[in-house]
Write a structure and sequence with these properties.
Number of helices: 10
Order of helices and strands: EHEEEHEHHEHEHEHEHEHEH
Number of strands: 11
CATH superfamily of the largest domain: NAD(P)-binding Rossmann-like Domain
CATH class of the largest domain: Alpha Beta
Oligomer: single chain
Bound molecules: glyoxylic acid
Radius of gyration: 21 Å
Number of domains: 2
Largest sheet: 6 strands, parallel
CATH architecture of the largest domain: 3-Layer(aba) Sandwich
Helix content: 25-40%
Shape: elongated
Length: about 300
């Protein structure tokens, strides 16, 4: 590596507001570095060795022929890995941030509490002017399945147990049937890989207890939408909380928007926190520059 580090390229789809938040956070965490965006004048793309990316458009990194490291600001790197222009041996580090795991756990806890205690039903009843208490059940009578036991799934499982829920966590490779058969609430926190794409289909939904709920906080492509809608329509599934979709923003007119048994969130379950994430990026880059092994490097074969 040269004595003077080359500029670090930022490749993102940030809107103006996000850019105004991220640029200063990264600049403060990386005071010795120059941060550039594609199209910025006065930098030679051939001097860029590091790119910091947030769900960049496919091909965005092609302009940097000497890239040696990609640091993602997103936890999920499925879009990045689907980019055919990305060299197969280019190391990618995904974002692992306790602040993000905590945010994900908050969303999962909110969804599970809502579904368990029927607060979604009371919201509907209020719109209809209906005063109708539901039976109140104890948390330790409610079985929650958590698909994925990584950074986020693990944290969600721990916090659900702290609230008293019975939690069964599932990792790929383990039998799924017993988890499905017992879960009245199923929370998806899997990475999206060729193995997990379309995993939540009619065959999986059919194995849940009748009237169960799905909470998808991972990726839209884990779910076969037509199968989910069919399960909701025939009552096999009682409710779905969906933060992620095949196409985002969710297109106007999509049935999820108005389905009475669907809660739609605009991909906000766990947004990256600019300040804590910028510090993590700086630590990772400093370790890499010292020649240390990268932590949370993406395993390209596993897909996350
Ligand atoms: C958001 O979905 C992320 O992967 O960080």
């Amino acid at each position: 590596m040269s004595a003077t580090p080359g500029p670090i390229a930022l490749a993102c789809r940030f809107d103006a507001q996000e850019w105004a938040e991220w640029r200063p956070a990264l600049a403060a965490a990386l005071p010795g570095d120059t941060l550039v965006r594609a199209g910025d004048p006065d930098h030679d793309p051939a001097t860029v060795e590091i790119a910091i990316v947030a769900n960049p458009p496919a091909g965005a990194l092609q302009r940097y022929p000497r890239l040696r490291l990609v640091q993602s600001l997103w936890a999920g790197v499925d879009k990045l890995l689907a980019d055919p222009t990305l060299p197969a041996d280019l190391p990618i580090v995904r974002m692992v941030d306790p602040a993000m795991n905590a945010a994900m756990a908050e969303t999962a806890l909110w969804a599970v509490l809502m579904l368990h205690r029927g607060f979604h039903v009371y919201a509907r009843q209020q719109r209809e002017g209906v005063w109708q208490p539901q039976a109140q059940r104890r948390a330790d009578a409610v079985q929650v399945g958590v698909l994925g036991q990584g950074q986020m799934g693990g944290e969600v499982s721990r916090r659900l147990r702290m609230l008293g829920y019975r939690v069964s966590g599932w990792r790929r490779g383990e039998p799924l049937g017993p988890v499905l058969a017992s879960s009245e609430i199923l929370v998806n926190l899997l990475p999206l890989t060729p193995h997990t794409r379309g995993l939540i289909d009619a065959a999986v939904l059919r194995q849940l207890p009748r009237g169960a709920a799905l909470v998808n906080l991972a990726r839209g492509a884990h779910v076969v939408d037509a199968d989910l809608l069919a399960a909701l329509d025939d009552g096999q599934l009682g409710h779905a909380v969906l933060d992620v979709f095949h196409q985002e923003p969710l297109p106007a007119g999509h049935r999820f928007w108005t389905h009475p048994a669907v809660t739609v969130l605009p991909h906000v379950a766990a947004q990256t926190d600019a300040h804590s994430a910028a510090r993590i990026v700086a630590q990772n880059l400093a370790a890499w520059r010292r020649g240390e092994a990268l932590v949370h490097q993406v395993d390209r074969r596993a897909g996350y």
